[in-house]
Design brief:
Elements lengths: L4 H10 L6 E2 L5 H12 L4 E2 L4 E2 L8 H8 L15 H7 L19 H12 L28 E5 L5 E10 L2 E6 L2 E6 L5 H11 L6
Antiparallel strand pairs: 1-7, 2-3, 4-5, 5-6, 6-7
């Protein structure tokens, strides 16, 4: 979905061209599950009747409930703490590598990077599923109607007015004129970085 021309002009005036880009997060169902279907279902598939390590990859509800979240195989926004990615990235001759030798073709470097990026962006399982309060992505702010517009400053001192959506890995997602934009956290001023982290942790009410 492309921003309205007027919005593009506004960003051209108030921000460096590389500061903001529209957020299009990777989606497990659309982008990651097809990879696992080809490479991992011999060991982790409800369809195939196997659940090695109690990990099921093709039951989205069960996967989201039991495998995505703090202290789970997938930790949204933190690939280094995500055991699923760690096992996938192990050398193929490692005893803990996924998939094990003879159980499937190892993921390509491009596929591994896609899984890593999905986790960095928040590990969304099914973007089309109707939002519910108890299964919102991590670091998500309150409902859209409750979000308020705030000032955000980049490292060059340019200011925009936008509402906070969430932290997603090393980026903050902001809402402006009904469009979501992903901004690298490092490109913001120290004050705006602190503001984003405070909002994500719930220390500041909206």
């Amino acid at each position: 979905m492309k921003p309205l021309p007027a919005l593009c002009i506004a960003f051209a005036i108030f921000t460096p061209s590389a500061w903001v880009h529209q957020a299009v997060a990777l989606d497990y169902k659309k982008d990651i599950l097809p990879i696992f279907d080809r490479k991992c279902f011999k060991c982790h598939s409800d369809r195939e009747g196997v659940s090695k390590g109690s990990l099921i990859l093709d039951d989205l509800e069960e996967f989201e409930k039991y495998s995505v979240g703090p202290n789970h195989p997938v930790v949204p926004g933190d690939p280094e703490k995500s055991d699923l990615l760690r096992f996938i990235e192990l050398p193929s001759d490692d005893n803990d590598a996924m998939p094990p030798s003879g159980k499937g073709e190892p993921l390509s470097d491009k596929e591994k990077e896609l899984v890593r990026q999905w986790i960095v962006e928040g590990a969304v399982v099914d973007a089309n599923k109707k939002d519910k309060d108890d299964d919102k992505p991590m670091n998500e702010a309150p409902a859209l109607a409750e979000r308020k517009v705030m000032s955000w400053t980049n490292a060059q001192g340019k200011v925009i007015e936008a509402a906070f959506l969430r932290l997603s890995g090393d980026s903050v997602e902001l809402l402006m004129n009904g469009k979501a934009y992903k901004v690298p956290l490092a490109s913001l001023s120290s004050e705006s970085q602190a503001q984003a982290k405070s909002l994500a942790s719930g220390e500041s009410g909206l």
